[in-house]
Every structure is written in C-alpha cells, then in structure tokens.
Amino acid sequence: MKKVISLLLALMLVMACVGCGNKNESAPTDGITESEQSEEASDEGAETEAEPEAEEEAVEPEAEAEEENAESGAEADGASEETKSEGVMTYAEYVAAELDTEVVVETYVQAKQSWWEDKATVYSQDKDGGYFLYNMACSEEDYEKLTVGTKIKVTGYKAEWSGEVEIIDATFEIEDGNYVAEAEDVTAMLGTDELIDHQNEFVSFKGMTVEASQDADGNEAPFLYNWDGSGQDGDDLYFNVSLNGETYTFTVESYLCDNTTDVYSAVKGLNIGDEVDMEGFLYWYEGVNPHITSVTVK
C-alpha cells in the first residue's frame, strides 16, 4: 500500500514539473513580469491609436499652405486690376456715356494711323476695350513718343461716324505704364450682335476664304484699290472674305499700313479661294470693316 502511495506521489510530482515547464515556456524570457508586459502592451496600443492623429496633424500644414497660396493668388489677381486716376472713366462708363459729351479715359497706344498738321489719329486700348482717337491734338515731337504700349490720359468728346464710335477734339498726357494687347479671336462672333462690343480692339479672324471683288471694269479680282477699284498702288486695299456663307469686306488702311508693309504686299498677292488668317483693329463703317495689319495664307 505504501508503495502504491509512493508511486502516486512520484507521478503527481512529475506532472507538476511538466506543468511548471509549460508555464515557463509561455512566460517572457527577458525578465519582464506579466504586469510589466501588460503595461507595455497597453502603451503600444495607445501609440498605435495616436498615430492617425499624428498623420492628420501632418496634413494640416499642407492644407494651410494651400489656403495661403490661394489667398495670395487672389490678392495678386486683385493687384493686377488697373486702378483709374481720379476723374477718369472706366471702359464701361465710357460706353455708357452719351454722344457729344466730354469723356476722360486712360488708354494705351496700340498703333498710329497718321499725323498731319499737329493732329494724330491713334488706335488705343486698355484691358477692357478699345478707343479710336481721331485727329487728337499732338505735336510732331509728341507723336514720336507715342510708341506701342505707351499709356496716355485722353480728354475729348465721344462721337460717332457711320457706326464708328471715336473720341474727337482730344488732348492727351503721357503717363507711366505700358500695355500691349494680344489679338482676341472674334471669328465666331462674325454676324452676331456681340461683335460690336469689341469695336476698335485688336482682334484676329481665322480660317476665312478670299472671295471675288468686282473691279471698275466689271472683272473679278481678289482685291481692289479703293472700295470701287478706282485707285492705284498706294491707296487703301479692299478685299472680300467669307465664313459660313457670309461675305465681309476688310480693308488695309494705307495710312496705317502703306504699300511698303508686309500686309499690303500679302493682300496684293491673294488669290480668290485662298484660306487666310488675319489680325487687325475692329473698325466700323456701315457695319464691320476691320483695318487689317496681318494676313497669312494657310
């Protein structure tokens, strides 16, 4: 009986040792207690949960930078808007002014048509619209100063002649500033009421076709000297171009572009049926009658 009891006790001792061995294998081997391990796991969990907040905080400065850039861009756009001097009209105010009333505008020389007996005719424009300055008081010395882009303050009277709105009886002062307009493509506006809103501006026409004109002898020609073909080399050139079945008459104004210029030669070299791109000033005479400064045959 004692042997049986001794055997049972020995067996229980072996099982207890095995149990302790299993427990030791599952415990940390670096001397960290279970409570310390639990605290470390809690800390790791806290750090893991905190990481998304850190990422969000890292994104916020970028968003703030984008907002600051947007604000500075808006300020730059605002700064680029031209401020008129005291007593000077905006283009909208000029358009709204009654005919034969005094107008004061600030504008920029885009081209000079002519000078004669202390009077100058000038194509000018600001960022909002164009102005045709007809026979403006100007000495020959000052005429030479009116280079392309020159800013001038003009005082005169708003007038109209055969549909062309202009400023007459004007004087001017040269001011600081410079602006050269890029040609705005108004091809799609031909035949619409919208086109006249761009009167006197520097514009372009693209993909138009040269149509026949009839000369003084009744013959077809790609261009005419003077509107009726009665002129000669050195006079204004008139030529017809079409778009979408509608024909328009364009002009090379000889005072603006004489017979030594590239555009004058280009028009003289046109053939009926040529497709052309053009640039010029949107002059008006009994309807649209642009003063062309450039012609390119496609």
Explain what the structure shows:
The protein has helices spanning about 1-25, 35-80, 90-95, 140-145, 260-270; strands at about 100-115, 120-125, 130-135, 150-160, 165-180, 185, 200-210, 215, 220, 225, 235-245, 245-250, 275-280, 290-295. The chain is an alpha+beta fold and about 300 residues long. Strand 1 (about 100-115) and strand 2 (about 120-125) form a beta hairpin. The longest helix has about 45 residues, at about 35-80. It is globular.
Can you give me a brief rundown of this structure?
The chain is an alpha+beta fold. It has five helices and 14 strands. The strands form three sheets. Strands 6, 7, 10, 11, 12, 13 and 14 form a seven-stranded mixed β-sheet that branches.
What brief labels describe this structure?
14 strands; seven-stranded mixed beta sheet; 298 residues; alpha+beta; 5 helices; five-stranded antiparallel beta sheet
Layout: helices, strands, pairs:
Elements: H1 2-26, H2 34-80, H3 91-96, E1 102-115, E2 119-125, E3 130-137, H4 140-145, E4 150-161, E5 164-178, E6 184-185, E7 202-211, E8 213-214, E9 220-221, E10 224-225, E11 237-243, E12 246-252, H5 262-268, E13 275-281, E14 291-297
Parallel strand pairs: 6-7
Antiparallel strand pairs: 1-2, 1-4, 2-3, 4-5, 7-11, 7-13, 8-9, 10-11, 11-12, 13-14
Number of β-strand runs: 14
Briefly note the structural class of the backbone: alpha+beta
- H-E order: HHHEEEHEEEEEEEEEHEE
Oligomer: single chain
Rg from alpha-carbon coordinates: 42 Å
**Average pLDDT, all residues:** 82
Helix content: 25-40%
The best one-word shape is: globular
The count of helical stretches stands at 5
